Automatic annotation (TrEMBL):
SUPFAM superfamilies: L domain-like. It comes from the Eukaryota. Keywords: Leucine-rich repeat, Repeat. Pfam families: LRR_4, LRR_6. This is Lrrc23 protein. It comes from Symbiodinium natans. GO terms for cellular component: cytoplasm.
């Protein structure tokens, strides 16, 4: 039985599929590798498959991801549910990677992501307490950071194409360090520690859908910043103390602040 370190990747454990031409067109190779839940720890064998484009290595015992970085043609990479605590790929590695799943690992920080083609990445269910080194990405469209240990949003900025940002189930109380997200259309900050919606919303001018459910809004005034969100069309704000206050019609108060809403808590706003 494999220990905590897992076992080395073997040809027998690999499920190879999707035969395609090489990039140069001089032959045919397998482009997809699936090896799920096989207690794999070592990835040395990957060096013999340089033309892989899609890898699913989830539910294993992987700690060292360096061998993956040597694969220059990877488009999608699933390393979820492993034991990875560090990403140390160099700026020259994984140049074509589009989709990265690192959920359910042991990462303590969100690093700078050098992959120039990256579109979507998932870092949910880690131990991430800081994003300070991230400092934005020029092509990233979706970033999922729910269920971590973030108390600050510092570093989540300068991402001109980011459309979806998920930060639910963290320890955030403000978004003061978020800026230069001009294309952000969906933001989930539910189940955090927000007491007010005061935030640099002008840095997220395209925001259409906002989920702030399960936060600590206790005063009507805490929702007043809704007034400046000109593009907002969908708001979820259930599960906050304000709902329980006698004499407060939270739905009406929200619609006073933001009359352009189309859906409120999953229902038609009108």
């Amino acid at each position: 039985m494999a220990g905590d370190e897992g076992v080395e990747l073997t040809a027998e454990a690999m499920q190879l599929s999707d035969v395609s031409k090489t990039v140069a067109g001089g032959g045919f190779v397998y482009s997809r590798l699936d090896c799920i839940g096989k207690q794999i720890g070592g990835l040395g064998l990957l060096a013999e498959y340089p033309f892989l484009r899609h890898l699913d290595l989830s539910q294993n015992c992987i700690k060292d991801v360096a061998p993956v970085g040597k694969l220059q043609h990877v488009l999608s990479l699933n390393l979820s549910s492993n034991a990875i605590s560090k990403l140390d790929w160099t700026p020259q590695e994984l140049p074509h990677l589009l989709f990265l799943d690192m959920s359910s690992n042991q990462l303590a920080e969100l690093p700078q992501l050098h992959m120039p083609a990256l579109r979507r990445c998932d870092f949910r269910f880690n131990r991430i307490s800081t994003c300070a080194d991230f400092q934005g990405h020029s092509t990233l469209q979706t970033l999922r950071l729910s269920s971590n240990q973030l108390a600050s949003a510092a570093g989540l900025n300068k991402s001109p194409k980011l459309e979806v940002l998920e930060l639910s189930e963290n320890m955030l109380a403000d978004l003061n360090d978020v800026y230069r997200l001009p294309c952000l259309s969906t933001l989930d900050i539910s189940k955090n520690k927000f007491e007010s919606l005061v935030a640099p919303w002008h840095e997220m001018a395209a925001l259409k859908a906002l989920d702030v459910a399960g936060n600590a809004f206790a005063q009507v005034e805490s929702l007043k910043p809704l007034e400046v969100m000109a593009s907002l069309r969908s708001l979820t704000v259930a599960g906050c103390p304000l709902e329980e206050q006698d004499g407060v019609n939270m739905r009406l108060e929200i619609l006073i602040f933001q009359c352009q809403l189309q859906t409120l808590n999953g229902e038609e706003a009108a």
